[in-house]
């Protein structure tokens, strides 16, 4: 897998990435995984797509509601739209699970949270982090902080599951087939 | 096995901070809410899952546990990495705003401009495992490194590596290339 392409001065991983994806895929993926707002030039460099083409793709993604824009000292920046982000997370849940599956997942997460509350005698991830003091071992500290992070992920997932379950019929409704 | 748990199989993220419980700092210098940080991590991991599904070595990928996206797990075709093992798997963690252990700092970071922590870790049914990790580690300077061991009873060997990519999805492809090259050299 280390082979470079003849006549192309680019790393092998870029060649492999280009073989497996389109330029639009890479621009969408880079812009959807941003940690902070970025310019078209930055996204073009990371996606290995020319800047003019990247700008076209980004504007299309803005029109589709995937990205939002802002003006900064660096120029126009792009960042994932939070509403689109949440709705696609819910869409994934609904597409891959039945209503019963979703309910079972929510129940399991509730059970996890209750077990964490009982095990550490705390009511929230923040309280669990606050329980990490100098008088516990490093291993115990790491474990508590790891569980606090998982607890926060579980709470977020639970909020998505509640939305998916509450609106399951709406989200899965399809028009009747024509005669 | 080595000590202290910093050099594990990709299942944990170091999150200790000298000011326990403080919120991640935003690029603009403000403090990000926990909710924002969790949503960002979830979003990045979903993007990484999508990209994994494009990679020729990945059979399937999913958010774990139970679709929660605390991390990504994937089934891998080991033959694509030049291995004849029966099966292989991949774990990916990504922490965009990491809490760092005491006595460590992002100022110590070398060979990448990334501010996140991550682990991209490959394991075979034979017992061999390896990965590219970006996190403080007492066995290697500069946080970013490659580690491997022949079996769970062996100690890890560590090497410094460099990354060109900065976006998480590019880092994923580059790290998988590093892993493939190392396995083929072994």
Automatic annotation (TrEMBL), chain A:
<dbReference type="InterPro" id="IPR011991">
    <property type="entry name" value="ArsR-like_HTH"/>
</dbReference>
<dbReference type="InterPro" id="IPR036390">
    <property type="entry name" value="WH_DNA-bd_sf"/>
</dbReference>
<dbReference type="InterPro" id="IPR055766">
    <property type="entry name" value="DUF7342"/>
</dbReference>
<dbReference type="InterPro" id="IPR036388">
    <property type="entry name" value="WH-like_DNA-bd_sf"/>
</dbReference>
<dbReference type="Pfam" id="PF24033">
    <property type="entry name" value="DUF7342"/>
</dbReference>
<protein>
    <recommendedName>
        <fullName>Transcriptional regulator</fullName>
    </recommendedName>
</protein>
UniProtKB/TrEMBL annotation, chain B:
<protein>
    <submittedName>
        <fullName>Uncharacterized protein</fullName>
    </submittedName>
</protein>
<feature type="compositionally biased region" description="Acidic residues">
    <location>
        <begin position="1"/>
        <end position="11"/>
    </location>
</feature>
<feature type="region of interest" description="Disordered">
    <location>
        <begin position="1"/>
        <end position="39"/>
    </location>
</feature>
